[in-house]
Write a structure and sequence with these properties.
428 residues; mainly alpha; two-stranded antiparallel sheet; elongated
Amino acid sequence: MSSRIKVDYLLNSEIVQTLKGAQDKKDFKCVECLLKDLTKENPDAVIELSNDDWLKDPSVQLPPAVLVGLWSLEYKQELTSPLCIAAAQGFSDCLLYLLEHGAHPNLSAGGKVALHEACSNSNTECAELLLEHGADPNQLTEDGQAPLHLCKTPQSLRCAKALVRHGANVDLPTEEEEDTPLLIAARHGLSRHAQLFLRYGANVNHTSSSGETPLGAACLEAQQKLGEDQNEGHLQVSSILLSYRANVNQADNEKRTPLHKAARNVQISLVQLLLDHGADINAIDYNGCSPLSNVLQNAILRQEWQPDIVVQTLLNHGSIKVWPQALLKVLAACAAAPKTVEILFNSYTLVPVTYKWVEAIPEDIFKLHRSFYDSLFALEYKPRSLQHMCRSALRKVFGKYCYLFIPQLPVPKILQDYLLLKPEGYIN
């Protein structure tokens, strides 16, 4: 598309080279002066900042990286305009000067307009100036994104507010993925953006081309950070979406619900939030996996995030258990997470331990967690204790309400924890 646009200042021109040199040196005063000088001749000048024109020459010697497929052979040309540069850099005074001297706010250069640049870089003052001078708040980039779709950081909130005040469509989807601004805000954990879009009437249950909802996107992208208990942004977004009646069980095209995604990411606070709002704990995706299966699949990869607590929570809310004959495979996969193995094993009344279990544990893992696995393997062809049998009987009576009724029993806290499958570090 950009190749059909008439370029006023080519890459090798003196003014473009001077402009690029000033930008490289961060001489912003020089950049502003150059942009103003350009406006005197043509306020809507198209400037070429880069050009892979050498790729079109059949006689060119290709670099080794191209030959091994590390570079794309697609022709690329980066075009911009004085207005786009000023908006991207946050030069509000220069931007106003350009607008007052005839620069068109909706002129596209290189697939973007100045408003896109302002929003991408969270330059609120520039965004407001452009909107006041007639910039279209819903104009799409070459790849089908509106300015609101480009508000992806906490710092872009004021830009988003300015856009919606000037009529930006909060339900406008991107052209390919069909993501709305609310879905993008949820994906990036931007709770204040989400609240803003919902106040302006955004569809809380919009589905993208992949069947993703804002709630599903928040759960999919939620990642625990080092030193934190939970990614607070995605948790807050999810709470807000649920307060606006987001469908907690709406699945994507792979039949994965928000709970599948939260469990897979080992996000205990998010899992608990979804369960509190009626999430289907036994939903099955296209791969035949339940939320419990998802967390077990990631127990080793995300062991520092305490997958055992997620497993314990799901089981106490009535999750279907792993088919007993498949326990050996789970044991082999989760051997390095003994707390998870203990909780899962204790959720059954009786599962025969055989020599195959011993063989399934790698020697280094066995040595690292020897006391636990010694207690487990001591049960080979032996019955469980009477205490465990009583626990199983009570848990069967309470069923999916174990989490609710067991804490109300008039027994010591240590016994309540035992009934709720809290790991002890050994099997009795």
